[in-house]
Write a structure and sequence with these properties.
4-stranded antiparallel β-sheet, alpha+beta, Jelly Rolls
Length: 160
């Protein structure tokens, strides 16, 4: 399925890119429909492609053992324009969470090798996308930091 430039323009990963740069990225992108309830990827899997949510909602999950049973706990939900599987651009290229489509979702897929070829040809494009990626990673870090702080507060309150 062809990826409209607007789907890329609306993504946090491609914020600030010019139309010709978006068209270049779009030339290596493809999109696919994912039915609600479908597991998109799992924690620890190899990250070969960056994914963007073109439409729909995807839950980012972490497997947690509760009473001897492993359950996927939702850390956050992502919708239109959000970046998933950004680990495909960061060594060691392993996914750090799982993901499941909450609703029927359209995902845009950008293979790492195709992006690396574009980056080799256009270093300024790589620099802009890398800065945007830093913002995405900082947002994820802030969420995890808040979870850790909340857990520490609970521990302090119960021990006081």
């Amino acid at each position: 399925m062809t990826v409209p430039i607007d789907a890329l323009r609306d993504s946090e990963l491609f914020a600030g890119l010019k139309d010709d740069e978006l068209a270049l990225v779009g030339s290596v992108a493809r999109s696919a429909r994912v039915p609600a309830g479908t597991r998109v990827f799992g924690l620890g899997e190899a990250a070969q492609s960056v994914l963007l949510v073109q439409s729909g909602t995807v839950a980012l999950t972490l497997p947690v053992v509760l009473r001897g049973e492993t359950r996927d706990v939702t850390l956050e939900e992502k919708s239109d324009g959000a970046v998933l599987a950004w680990s495909a651009l960061v060594p060691p290229y392993k996914l750090t969470l799982g993901a499941t489509a909450r609703t029927e979702t359209v995902l845009v897929q950008l293979e790492r090798t195709a992006l690396e070829r574009l980056f080799a040809e256009r270093p300024a494009l790589q620099a802009r996308i890398s800065m945007n990626l830093n913002t995405v990673i900082a947002g994820r870090f802030a969420i995890l930091e808040a979870l850790v702080i909340r857990d520490l507060q609970r521990r302090v309150e119960t021990s006081a």
